[in-house]
Prior knowledge:
Blueprint: H1 29-52, H2 56-83, E1 85-91, E2 97-103, H3 114-140, H4 147-169, H5 175-196
Antiparallel strand pairs: 1-2
Helix pairs in contact: 1-2, 1-3, 2-4, 3-4
Amino acid sequence: MLRQDSQDALLFGEEDDSLRPKKSKIRHPVVSFFHLFFRTSAILVYLLCDIFSTSFIVCMVTIILLLSCDFWTVKNVSGRLLVGLRWWNQIDEDGKSHWVFESRKAQSGNTTSAAESQIFWLGLIVCPIFWIIFVFSTIFSFKIKWLAVVIMGLVLQWANLYGYVRCKVGGKSNLRNMASNYLGLQILKQAMKKTEQP
């Protein structure tokens, strides 16, 4: 007769914290650094590319490499370790695409640090705003050769933002339905206020 071990295996995002010192609020300093490093480096290279190199190709390749490293790091490492979220796309045997959004179980003993969560979400939200500004500035300044680079920056950073927002609010719920429910609730509140006024 086989005996099964009664200990549960570590779930997604759980780690053995017994050996880790508890002094710092930031439990993953290297991950936190690289979460911000690649995305801010891509923005800085874009802004200062005329100083670094006169070659458009060198600047474009450098920015795209930094954006790719950022996309991979945020999607596969920092989201999992800093906030306990991850997302991916898988193709089934029929060729249909399925998006999977996961979050760490709340009852697991490994909770996220508030400082790491703030670093994660601040970097995830602020950097796409820069790329939106770059898209408009590229169009209005007629620097059309940079348009593909800034659109790639926006798409890669927006994809991670969208994926993690879906993970945070629940992968099964539709963001459009949530927005319309919120809007309907606000309209109902305004209507109730107007009926209460004499």
